[in-house]
Every structure is written in structure tokens, then in C-alpha cells.
Amino acid sequence: MKKHCLAVVCGLGLCTSAQALELGAYLGDDAGIGILHHDLRVNVGLDNFALSLDKLHSFNQNPQHLYWGYGAKYRDSNKHSFGIRGNFGIKTQVDNFVFYAEAQPIAYLLEDTAMKLEVNAGVRYRF
Q: Are 36 and 52 in contact (CB under 8 A)?
């Protein structure tokens, strides 16, 4: 399962145009790798296997640094399996590197329902 999801994420990166494409890694509740293309992001958590898809938006007052979004997450775990979530983050760009930190309130809906606040921080390379 992990190999298939990783192949899908890598394939998405190769099939899309390099314009506005960002590839990187993150640490937090699910450390892993991610791809951002325009406003769609796919993350694959490798620490505790997870797969998430998010749609991100910039705040109108500060489009360079603050953003929000929403999405869904699948986690291969005996406690939580699927949830819907929001994203609230801050980012900055230095040369082609984008550094970010975000909070993600998530409502797990299947198996063991729960509300959680997850946090991640990472870096992506912008092509």
C-alpha cells in the first residue's frame, strides 16, 4: 500500500508541469513528503502511514505569508482511519525554498471518532 501511494505521488509530480510545482518534506504528527501544485497539495506520511489531499487558499490581506485550506486524510492506523480537516498556515520563501508551519484541526469520522489538532512544519523546493 505504501509503495503504491508513493508511486502515485511521484507520478503526479512527473506528470504535471514544473511551473508552480513544489516538492518537499515535513515533520510533525505524520512526518513525510509532499507535493504542492498551484493550490492542490498531496502529502504522504511515512512515520505513521497517512495520505492526505488539501486545497489551499491565500488570505486576501496577506497572500505572501498566510494561508488556509480544507481537505481529507486517510491514516492507516487501528484508531483513526479517515477524517476531514482544515489547514491554517504561515510560510516564507527564501530563494527557491518555501518554509512553512501549519495547524490542522481534524475530525476523524470512521472507527474511532475524535477531534484532534495536528501540527506540521516543513520545507519545499519550488521549481
A: no
